[in-house]
Write a structure and sequence with these properties.
With about 140 residues, the chain is an all-alpha fold. It folds into 2 domains: about 90 residues, no CATH class; about 40 residues, no CATH class. The protein is built from 6 helices and no strands. The longest helix has 27 residues. The termini are far apart.
Length: about 140
């Protein structure tokens, strides 16, 4: 089955909507359990959903398509994702979702910085202004 053909912008908006739902649902779900166990449950759900999607869309690929570099960076990405989720759920357990989520979005600022430093991407002055505004907004929400 072919990938669903939507623009990257629509996928990004959907990602933001689902991320917002994640914060709200997680905050409610964390009311009676610790954050690490909640992250574990969330991870199991994600693995099951992805296995179903890959199965029904025929997107499973043979292991041989994984090069050493691909596997290394996917493992690093997985470790970073796990660390991010653990930290995010701990923050949600302790803080208000309306404060935690915007600070989490400082990841946008870090992605911009890392993409320039590591990937050699070029960012325009106007984009840097937007990135600075995102950082300022997160700081204002965190402090007020």
């Amino acid at each position: 089955m072919k990938d669903i053909q939507l623009t990257w912008q629509l996928w990004a908006v959907l990602s933001a909507v689902f991320a917002a739902c994640t914060a709200i649902f997680a905050k409610i779900g964390l009311s009676t359990i610790n954050s690490d166990y909640a992250t574990f449950i969330r991870t199991i759900v994600i693995v099951i959903v992805l296995a179903v999607i890959l199965t029904f869309t025929g997107q499973f690929q043979p292991v041989r398509v994984l090069t050493g570099k691909t596997l290394t960076f996917l493992i690093l990405s997985g470790l970073a994702t796990g660390a991010s989720w653990l930290c995010y759920f701990r923050a949600l357990k302790q803080g208000e979702a309306s404060h935690v989520a915007p600070i989490d979005k400082l990841s946008v600022v870090f992605v911009a910085l890392f993409s320039v430093i590591i990937l050699g991407e070029k960012i325009s002055l106007l984009h840097w202004l937007g990135i600075a505004l995102i950082a300022a907004g997160a700081v204002i929400i965190a402090v007020l």
